[in-house]
Known about the structure:
By secondary structure, the chain is of the alpha/beta class. The protein has 12 helices and 13 strands. It has 2 domains: about 15-25 and about 35-215 and about 310-325, P-loop containing nucleotide triphosphate hydrolases (Rossmann fold); about 220-305.
Amino acid sequence: MKPPLFWYKPRSLRALMLQPLAALYARATAARVKKRPDYRAKVPVICVGNINAGGTGKTPTTIALCQRLTEQGFAVHVVSRGYGGSLEGPVAVDPRTHDADQVGDEPLLLAAFAPTHVAKDRAAGVQAAERAGADVILLDDGFQNPSVHKDLNLVVVDAVKGFGNGRVLPAGPLREPAAVGLARADALLVIGPKHARDRFQPDLPATCPRLNGQLDPLPTGMPLDGLPVLAFAGIGHPEKFFATLKAMGANVVRGEALDDHQPLTDTLLNRLEVEAKARGLHMVTTEKDAVRLPATFRTKVTTIPVRLMVEDWDPLDTKIAALLRRRD
């Protein structure tokens, strides 16, 4: 489902009409968050979450933290709900035997960087990661889920979209009021181009430092400068991917914006392939979409991986180091 445009308009009659429902949603979230956690792990649990519904950059952030903590010598495991996957879990993701229909696209991608466990019951997933030898557990999403105690909450927000119109679902894009969520956050990571980061200036508690980052594409081995492409993306905000391609010099003749996690059916892929051949275009997609492609189709599409670059990790490094010392 694509987010409605009125979520990002400061004044909207539709948002105003939906405000009573938004108030009920916010009240339900507040009641859920106040619940005592069902489980407290014996190792540190770091939650990478958001206040917005939809894509904010959690997966690249989790990848970056996996790499950073692994380089420091920690056995890092990831626990994910496995959105879009059919398996209840807990199950350890194996890219050789699992596909996106079973475990979801994001866990398949994360499994390339750290042992990843999928579980609809997050507490069961955390326990599975402990049994598997985790020193540190990264909880992918779940900021508003009370089932597991989180030792540190990192909230991720897209600088361009910000907190939208500031309203809660369904009147706006937020899972809870921004001020309420930020009061529980240990750090805020703002991801986007510098001009958008400079413009986005939310009020933060003194205990919640701000980090700034952006997603940079990795070299693909194929020169994109001037290359005519048909781009397709099923992520939270496909337009960001199309903008990245243009910044890399590609001639984006057409961009197919899919729903987040949308299944890549044979009908859809055949249509894209026929169009690309007829118009002399190269098919290009995101790393997250590529893991959902059938193996026989992947060679026909160029994948553009992106990695998170953070200006200054120190505020978060300091908090994580203190957490790890406390839990030793």
